[in-house]
Design goal:
The complex is a heterodimer of chains A (about 350) and B (about 375).
Chain A: H1 20-34, H2 37-40, E1 46-47, E2 56-63, E3 69-70, E4 73-74, H3 75-88, E5 92-104, H4 109-126, E6 129-138, E7 146-156, E8 172-175, H5 181-191, H6 205-213, E9 217-221, H7 227-239, E10 242-246, H8 254-263, E11 277-280, H9 285-294, E12 302-308, E13 315-318, E14 324-327
Parallel strand pairs in A: 5-6, 10-13
Antiparallel strand pairs in A: 1-2, 2-7, 3-4, 5-7, 8-11, 8-12, 9-11, 10-12, 13-14
Helix pairs in contact in A: 3-4
Chain B: H1 10-23, E1 31-35, H2 38-47, E2 57-61, H3 66-69, H4 72-82, E3 87-91, H5 105-110, E4 115-117, H6 123-130, E5 135-140, H7 147-159, E6 165-169, H8 174-184, E7 191-194, H9 196-202, H10 208-214, E8 218-220, H11 225-241, E9 247-249, H12 261-270, E10 271-278, E11 282-291, H13 300-303, H14 319-324, H15 355-362
Parallel strand pairs in B: 1-2, 1-7, 3-4, 3-5, 5-6, 7-8, 8-9
Antiparallel strand pairs in B: 10-11
Helix pairs in contact in B: 1-11, 2-15, 7-12
The chains are: A alpha+beta (about 350), B alpha/beta (about 375).
Chain lengths: ~350, ~375
């Protein structure tokens, strides 16, 4: 094991932003220590060893978001959908989730009520039950309004094994619609920008179940923190193949593209909360795409690229004008530029 | 017209690229074009236009990234302010990861310093009003594009009688840096891709002496792929046809000949032109802006005392040379090894406009 160099180092915000800094931290501080075959697969949710003829999937996620309410959602719906989606992209039907709250002293009861009502609605929509929970209150200043942790359990669908090991050259990469909205919606609410961008926060199981029914899905992931670019880089690095994507096929709405242009952000790296990136067999791609487009959460689905034998372990984007550039992992937070 | 998509047309891009490549048939030798704007660096890599052009065209990045040209001493001063306890540093996001001599604002923030990322200097005034017991220090870094905004923020602060707002002025001017590069004669530059945003403020005139004294073509260019290709075509025409070099303006939809007089007047009202230190280029005459006497009470350096650590530079970091175009990021022994966007040693690796960061991200 490489010796950790942690003397005089502190946790920086970039350790939590889904980029290289975070993966290094997770590896050094946790994976190397907790080390076991279920964890080491590093999937969005852990596929537990089968018991009887059923295999369970288990996942957890914490939600710390400022502001807690934003266009298109709030911390409550996010906490439900995020966990539901982590199970769904594994091919597991989400069934039960937990709800653990860390609340800051002084929070308006009304805000808490709105958040838990939103969780209730989101869980009904996602067809899951919130079956256990915990509540802690900390002194004012020791938390920012409210932090939520949810864990979730789902049942892996029969004969479905989604893994990067299934990926082959020629496979197509699909996404179920426009990217970058969630991150920008939260940002505009926080910074008081006037935009009409709404978060895409939604539960993906229903859409994913339709996608799985056609067969041919090899791997899926939800492009949350770090955006589509990060997911693609992970697929390229871990499968060992190259990925080619075409900028002109990326579904990006005008408002997202203009707003990110102004701030110097790249929508490819912005978080989504209702998107799934799927690697599918070449011959099934168009039928899966048609199925997706029929679903309310997949109307703008698109084939954005393919697995290739060129540029192994790299993601190469063909720009709108036909130039090429390498898409790399995000390092730290995306920071707005000076000019 | 949406003014974005029209400038990213594939067929048109290829048409212009082919015309440029045709112009180069029969031309002997390499042509070095330098841009002096970080947004150009970024756009050129982001759109991949160089992959459409003849290998005979070399693209050099000059000192156009505001964060990158800011010397260590400025960063150290900002860090020293952040440690005072009664200060709030407000800054554009780019600055917080830039390493100073021994620390960075990001690290100071994790150790308890108050550093806030803002999107407009005016936000500092709100912060000042809401925190009457604190001194708000805005890091005024940038070129002719940001200076008018900062000037108008200072004027608003004066009007509203805000006494706890200060600016640490590190503003710099682009044309003196272009001249300094040509005077140094260390690199071959055949044409300048002049900065679109800066030119929107300063207009065409400041480039005339460059053309007259050094015979180097200057074309003001926009940031979309079609802008860049059209502008490069204008430059290549000037270079290959070898008529008298001139200042041309490709970015007429934004840049007026006379610039933005209102913005220039704001700069003039609040700032004096002074000699200023640039990373890589050293002290350049009349290349920076300091706050005028009438507005001294907003000048951080004149009002807030602090102890600044002794400036230390990393002995192997080539940011200075990279900024002058005399070295490429690949020439640096630290590049992509010790120095990465995650652990930047020099500022060129931090900002998305920085040359090293662009090389790392797009070409690695």
């Amino acid at each position: 094991m490489k010796k950790k160099n942690i003397k005089n180092k502190k946790i920086l915000l970039s350790h939590g932003s889904g980029g290289v800094a975070m993966s290094t931290l997770i590896k050094e501080m946790m994976i190397d220590k907790f080390d076991n075959p279920v964890l080491n697969k590093l999937t969005d949710s852990a596929g537990l060893p089968p018991s009887g003829n059923k295999q369970l999937c288990f996942t957890t996620d914490s939600y710390v978001i400022n502001p807690v309410f934003f266009p298109g959602g709030d911390i409550g719906s996010l906490a439900v959908n995020g966990t539901v989606n982590d199970l769904s992209v594994m091919g597991a039907k989400p069934l039960y989730i937990s709800c653990s709250l860390i609340i800051e002293e002084g929070l308006d009861m009304d805000i808490l009520d709105k958040i838990t009502t939103s969780m209730e609605k989101a869980s009904k929509k996602a067809n899951v039950q919130i079956v256990t929970g915990d509540t802690k209150v900390v002194e004012k200043g020791n938390a920012d309004k409210i932090f939520i942790n949810t864990a979730g359990i789902g049942i892996l669908q029969k004969n479905i094994v989604l893994s990067k090991n299934n990926i082959q050259i020629g496979d197509k990469i699909l996404i179920n619609g426009e990217i970058g909205a969630h991150g920008l919606a939260v940002m505009s609410e926080r910074e008081n920008f006037k935009t009409n961008i709404k978060s895409d926060c939604s539960p993906l199981w229903d859409l994913i179940e339709t996608m799985l029914s056609a067969g041919g899905i090899k791997f899926m992931r939800d492009p949350t923190r770090g955006g589509v670019a990060t997911v693609l880089c992970e697929i390229a690095e871990q499968s060992g193949f190259g990925i080619q994507i075409k900028e002109e096929t990326l579904p990006i709405h005008d408002n997202v593209s203009s707003f990110s242009e102004i701030l110097g952000l790249d929508p490819l790296y912005i978080a989504n909360e209702g998107k799934v990136v799927a690697v599918v067999a070449k011959d099934k791609a168009s039928s899966i795409l048609i199925n997706m487009q029929k679903h309310p959460l997949g109307k703008e689905s698109s084939i954005i690229g393919e697995i290739s034998e060129e540029n192994m372990r790299r993601v190469v984007l063909e720009t709108i004008i036909g130039g090429k550039r390498i898409i790399d992992r995000l390092v730290g937070d995306q920071l707005p530029r000076i000019c | 017209m949406k003014y974005i998509i029209e400038y990213r047309n594939k067929d048109l891009s290829h048409k212009i690229a082919n015309r440029i490549n045709d112009l180069l048939k029969g031309y002997k030798g390499k042509i070095s074009l330098m841009e002096v704007c970080g947004t150009h660096t970024h756009s050129i890599f982001h759109s991949g236009i160089m992959s459409l052009l003849s290998k005979e065209i070399e693209h050099l990045s000059g000192p156009g990234c505001p964060v990158c040209v800011t010397p260590n001493k400025y960063i150290d001063t900002a860090i020293a302010y952040s440690r005072l306890g009664d200060t709030i540093i407000t800054t554009f996001g780019d600055m917080i990861k830039v390493p100073g001599s021994t620390s960075s604002l990001e690290k100071e923030k994790a150790s308890g310093g108050t550093v806030r990322i803002i999107y407009s200097p005016l936000e500092s005034l709100e912060i000042a009003k809401n925190n009457p017991g604190k001194k708000i220090v805005f890091l005024g870094v940038g070129f002719e594009t940001t200076a008018p905004l900062v000037a108008s923020t200072i004027l608003s602060a004066a009007e509203e009688n805000i006494s706890n707002f200060f600016v640490l002025s590190g503003h710099k001017l682009i044309p003196p840096a272009m001249t300094a590069l040509l005077e140094s004669k260390e690199i071959k530059i055949d044409g300048f891709i002049c900065p679109g945003h800066v030119s929107a403020i300063i207009g065409e005139k400041p480039y005339f002496p460059i053309v007259e004294n050094f015979g180097i073509p200057c074309v003001i260019i926009g940031f979309e792929p079609i802008d860049l290709l059209e502008g490069i075509e204008m430059l290549i025409k000037q270079i290959t046809v070898k008529k008298k070099p001139s200042v041309e303006n490709q970015y007429k939809r934004v840049v007026r000949r006379e610039g933005n007089e209102k913005a220039l007047a704001l700069i003039d009202k609040v700032f004096d032109v002074k000699d200023s230190p640039w990373r890589g280029l050293g002290l350049l005459s009349k290349s920076g802006l300091s706050i005028k006497k009438a507005y001294t009470k907003f000048d951080a350096e004149k009002n807030i005392e602090c102890e600044i650590e002794k400036t230390k530079e990393h002995p192997e970091c080539l940011c200075g040379e990279v900024l002058c175009g005399t070295k490429r990021p690949y020439d640096c022994t630290l590049f992509a090894k010790t120095c990465s966007p995650e652990n930047p040693v020099g500022p060129c690796m931090v900002s998305s406009e920085g040359t090293c960061s662009a090389y790392y991200k797009f070409k690695k």
